[in-house]
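=== RUN LOG ===
request id: a7f3
mode: sequence -> structure
chains: 1
length: 112
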Amino acid sequence: MTTKEYRRFGESSWLWRRMVLVLGNQFGALDSRIGAVIGGVITLVIGMVLASTVNTQAASTGAAANIGSFTGAQALNDLIPLVYIAAIVMVGVGLIGMGGAGYMGMGPMGRR
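=== RESULT ===
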């Protein structure tokens, strides 16, 4: 079969008709939505794997007697893991949310 015949066969399938109904003629937009969801998952996984390193470094730095020259330096050092995890979760969940909203036709990745 030639490429043209394969394409004609694909366009006649039920899956092709469903995708055209859902996506219109925006198959390139589908790739960016999938990329956003996958990127969000990868961000969460890598960020949480590195979170143990951030916790260890913050704990070992806090164990030092002279951590800083001003009052409250130890308290600021204790906030580092919390801020790191909050940032990773916001970026990861934000990417997943943008991709998911794009599938629903809403948000910055929605159909226009």
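=== NOTES ===
The mean pLDDT is 77.
DSSP finds four helices and no strands in the chain.
=== END ===
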